Amino acid sequence: MSVYQATASAPVNIAVIKYWGKRDTKLILPTNSSLSVTLDQDHLRSTTTSRADPAFTQDTLWLNGKIDEIKAGGRLETCIREMKRLRKEIIEDKDASAPKANQVDLRSLQLSEYKVHIASYNNFPTAAGLASSASGFAALVSSLAQLYSLVPPLVSPSTLSLIARQGSGSACRSLYGGFVAWEQGVRPDGSDSLAIEVAPQAHWPEMHALICVVSDTKKGTSSTSGMQRTVETSTLLQHRIKEVVPARMAAITTAIQQRDFDTFARITMADSNSFHAVCLDTEPPIFYLNDVSRAIISVVVEYNRLSVERGEGYKAAYTYDAGPNAVIYALEKDIKEIIQLVLAYFPQTAGEFKDVLGVFGGSVQDVNVHAKIPEGFNDKVASKWEVGSVKGLIHTKVGDGPRALAPEEALLNADGIPKTLA
Ligand SMILES: Nc1ncnc2c1ncn2[C@@H]1O[C@H](COP(=O)(O)OP(=O)(O)OP(=O)(O)O)[C@@H](O)[C@H]1O
Ligand SMILES: C[C@@](O)(CCOP(=O)(O)OP(=O)(O)O)CC(=O)O
């Protein structure tokens, strides 16, 4: 009997214009458009295998080897149901004699009527403010799209993004590589609230990112509940939605198209600040940044001041999601200097984090030997922190969209059970 199984991986994305607020919590329709950079899956990714089988008795999902309950009416159920519906609508209803591999078994069920087993694995901490829900739901939708043959040119990533969006808003942007906008849309049914590609990865491959992991534990206020509270209580959010974001979306799109890093950096930092300002304007206030986050901001601000003084314009852009971890965007030519600077203020545990060693062209036991403050930098802007204040550094760059993986990469065994559990 045929095996109906597919594996896909999907990237994390980190927004430079932040999504914060829903106008419809069930359909996950945002109060403003947003824009992100997709990060390289060679570093951070979710991998998901989906399998449809007439012998399965219920839809089941394992996340990192543990069953994740698919609650009725919940986000996982919505995504799985919508992918089955799309399969039925686009393929099965159109062609009763659909290709054999997509067709029937002894009980005359269509593929979309089989129950599915899904195994997913994140190669980085889940629910720690590293956008696991974004890569996770994008990988889920991508693996089901492969399984159900809902692939281009029949189905575009934008169409799939409509479904990933209902898993987690930011997930819709992980359906594309490169630079991606999530257009808020106006229709009440959400059919125009989708992701579009602003520029592919190849347009600006020099865009690198340094993730400073300040905390890898579960955060206090989830994005979902935090943004809802902001919508209900913040007056500043209304100004952000109406006046601030639309102009920034247009300006940063142009900056990306023109590969204008200085403007890209100014807008990115301004929007991170605006997002954290509306968090503070929430009742009761929400604090995602901590003292380490703020020290990183001070270091980046001084670095940019020096860069302007040198006539080079802004060279680093910090941005923070709903947690204390910093993502610093910078061009490839400057990333080494920035990593050296970060090491000078936030020393790493010797021998542990090797994710930044690539730029130093070799391996040493203690990455801290590379710490260096550029000449002319006012080193009083922040104090030097203890080892471990920044727990890890991940050097990555702009990356591609979801990938279809080979059968050998499957996370399910021949019985449709995660290989790690068998
Ligand atoms: N690989 C995955 N497959 C399916 N669902 C996932 C996957 N990874 C994460 N999720 C879902 O996303 C939730 C975590 O989302 P949450 O928003 O709390 O954290 P985060 O995405 O790391 O942070 P943020 O979105 O604020 O950056 C998990 O509890 C799980 O429900
Ligand atoms: C701060 C953010 O990262 C918020 C992300 O929120 P989520 O997409 O995690 O929220 P839900 O739609 O409720 O799942 C900004 C962004 O990614 O644009």
UniProtKB/TrEMBL annotation:
Top EC category: lyase
Keywords: ATP-binding, Lipid biosynthesis, Lipid metabolism, Lyase, Nucleotide-binding, Steroid biosynthesis, Steroid metabolism, Sterol biosynthesis, Sterol metabolism
Pfam family, one: MVD-like_N
GO molecular function: ATP binding; diphosphomevalonate decarboxylase activity
Domain Diphosphomevalonate decarboxylase-like N-terminal: 10-195
Keyword set includes Lipid metabolism: yes
Gene Ontology biological process terms, A to Z: isopentenyl diphosphate biosynthetic process, mevalonate pathway; sterol biosynthetic process
EC assignment: 4.1.1.33
Catalytic activity: (R)-5-diphosphomevalonate + ATP = isopentenyl diphosphate + ADP + phosphate + CO2
Domain Mvd1 C-terminal: 209-404
Pathway: Isoprenoid biosynthesis; isopentenyl diphosphate biosynthesis via mevalonate pathway; isopentenyl diphosphate from (R)-mevalonate: step 3/3
One GO cellular component term noted in the UniProt record for this chain: cytosol
Family membership: Belongs to the diphosphomevalonate decarboxylase family.
Protein name: Diphosphomevalonate decarboxylase
The species this protein was found in: Ephemerocybe angulata
